[in-house]
Structure formats: structure tokens, C-alpha cells
Amino acid sequence: MVGGALASIPGVAWAAKPAPCPSGNKCGKNCCPDTTFVCSQGKCSCPTGQTACGGQCVPLTTNQNCGSCGNACSGGKTCQSGVCACPQGQSECGGVCRDLTTDVAHCGLCGSACAQGASCVGGQCVCPSGKELCSGQCVSSCMGGQVLNATTCECECPTGTTLCPGNNSCVQNCPQGQTLNATTCQCENIVCPTGTVLCGGQCVSTSCSSGEVFNVATCQCEACPTGQEACGGQCVQSCSSGRVLDPTTCQCACPSGTTLCNGSCVQNCPSGQTLNATTCTCENAGCQPGTTSGCPSGQGCCANATPAGAPACTSCGFCITCSYEDGVYMNPITCQCECLPGLVGCNSRNNSCCPPGATCCFKSVPGGASFAGCCPSGTRCNTAGETLVCV
After folding, report:
1. Within 10 Å of residue 355's Cβ, how many Cβ atoms?
2. Fewest Cβ atoms closer than 10 Å to its Cβ: which of 40, 91, 292, 330?
3. Residue 37 domain-assigned?
4. 271 exposed, middle or buried (CB, 10 Å; 0-12, 13-18, 19+)?
């Protein structure tokens, strides 16, 4: 009240009260924002090496203000010469500093994680004792000579060996003809049951269907090639000319009651006759035409008494004359002249014969007619001379 009264009195003057300085750091007429400022020539400024950040003077080398105001370092990084960087020996992975020599999530490289249970040693994933790394996981180490398959991560025996259950170790494969004893882990000779043979390292049956033989190369029953047939476990040439295969000797032979002659089977000759090896016809053994030599008692030998023109023993008497040259022979059974097979008689007596359709030719002789021969169909006989001419 007094002050107010005095101030209203003319000629009396009072000085204004200075404004307060919250920081307490006065610089001339100015009030510095913070005590970190210095006063220079009536002005507030930061000391050398510091910068005003948010009303304070701070160095730009701290983790909170690294290189610029408010640039705080994170993820384990520190401010180094105004730049946020990882400590020596660490690398930045996704904004966080990591030790690539020991970090199981970043082992050797950022993001290269070790398998569960493994540790990172010197930047390499290492499995615990008794295990080894395969396709990014720790698996049990192989034993008994087995090696780890890098694709399947399974333990396997090396090529040329087999795992034996008896000692759970890899042993050398057995040679052909032997098998591995799973208990003793020793190779033993293979003994195949009756009816089987060792083929391809195993016992297989050799019993084949009819017409097949066992092929030891393929260990299978196979049919014989065309022109061959099975006999005695092998393929042999098929028989021909009426011959059949003997199952005992596997040779072609004529059936019972026949004989091989000139490559064909012919009927065996009756008693008292022999087979002519050239003509393959039966002939009387030792029969001499016009005699009884070589014939049974009461019979005589007649010439041309077979279709082949061979002598034969007969009871017809010595002897009915049948001209073989006229296509006729004497049947030793009927005692009649008969045409040779494939010919027909020129008369009822069949004492002359010609092929079917041919013309029978005769010529006049004293006391009758004589057979002159045969002319082909469509021709006629000319018997005027001594020689038959077909015209």
C-alpha cells in the first residue's frame, strides 16, 4: 500500500525487480537453461566438445546421444567416435550385437543356429560327446565299423560289408556259395535242400514245367528254342522222320516195331526177311529165285514176288510168271499177278498195268497179243513197228 502510494507521488521513481532464473545460472541479462552452459560475453553457450540437446550441454559421444542429439545406442552397441558400434569381437545380427564364436543362435554367421543340444565353439556347431552333426541335428555316433549316411542320417556298413546281429558290427561279405551265420558272424557253406540248387546266392527249385529247362544264368525255368525240346534238364534237337526222343539217352530213336532206314522209320521186316538198306524194303534172306534155298519147307523162291521186284518165298509153286516189267508182280499170298502200287490193270487178269488215265498198248504176236507198254493220256499207240510209238 505504501509502495503504491509512493509510486503515485510525482517525482518519485523505483527500479523494476529482476525476473527470477530457475537454473540459477545467470549470464548478464540472460538466464542459461542449465548449469551445464557457460557464460561467454553475456551469452549462454556449451563448453567446447559439447552440444545443446534438450536444454543441456552434452557430448555427442555418449550412448544416449551418439553423433547427434537423441541418437541412443541399443542392442549392446556402444558409442564409438560418434557412431553406435558393437564391441570388438562381436557382430551385429538383426540390430543386436552377437558373439559369432559362442552364440548357438548365430554360430559363425548371423542366423546360423546350432541344432538342439549342440554348442557353438569357435564359430562351429559341436554336438555333445557320443553324437555327431547330420543335416542340422545331433544324432548318435555310429559304432561297429558303420558310417553315417549324410542323406538319411542313418548308420550303414561300408560297401562290401554287412551288419552282423551277433556282434552288431560290420563284417566282410561272404563269397558266393556261402552265407553269414547271424550268431557267430562267420561265413558258412550253403547246403540247398533236395530238388534245389544254389543259384544267384540262394537256393532255387529246378523243377520246371513240361518243355522247360532250368537256366543257371537267369536262375529261372525257360522254354526251349524252336526246333528243340527238353530232355534230361537240357534242350536237345527235336526228332523228325517219325523218330521219337528217348527220355533216357536223349537221343532220337524209331518207335518200337520200326527200324531207321535212310533217315526214316520203316516197319520191321517179318521173320525170314531182311531190310534192304538201299531200297528200305524187306527182302527174303538168302532166297534164290527158282530154288528152295532160303525158303521154309514146302515153299520155293519166285522172282518179282514183291512190289519192289524182289524175290520172295511162296507156296504158289514154281512159279507163276508175272512180268515185273509190265508193272506186275506175283502176290506170294494170293498167288495172283497184281499191279504194282499206283498202277491199274489193263485187263481182268492184271498181267499188264499202266498209270491211271494212260493207254494200254498191245501188239499182235503169233497166237495172240503181247503187251507193248503205256502211252500218256491223250495219245494213242502205234505198234506197227517193233518199238512202241505214242502219237
Report:
1. 13
2. 40
3. yes
4. exposed
Domain, as residue range, for 375: 357-391
Contact criterion met (CB below 8 Å) for 235 and 215:
no
d(CA 26, CA 20): 10
Last residue in a domain, options 37, 70, 103: 70
Domain boundary among 50, 70, 90: 70
pLDDT tens string, the chain, 391 residues long: the values are: 444 444 444 554 444 556 688 777 888 888 898 888 898 888 898 999 899 998 899 999 999 999 999 999 999 999 998 999 999 999 999 999 999 999 999 999 999 999 888 999 999 999 999 998 888 889 999 999 999 999 999 999 999 999 999 899 999 999 887 889 999 999 988 888 888 888 887 888 888 888 899 888 888 899 988 888 898 888 999 888 888 888 888 888 889 889 888 888 998 887 667 777 778 887 655 576 767 766 777 677 776 666 666 677 777 765 656 665 667 777 777 777 788 888 888 876 666 888 888 888 877 777 777 777 888 888 888 876 666 778 6
Please count the structural domains in the chain. 2
| pTM (2 d.p.) | 0.36
Give the sign of the dihedral formed by CA 70, CA 76, CA 79, CA 85: negative
What type of residue is 100?
Answer: L
Q: How far apart are CA 169 and CA 244, in angstroms?
A: 60
**349 part of a folded domain:** no
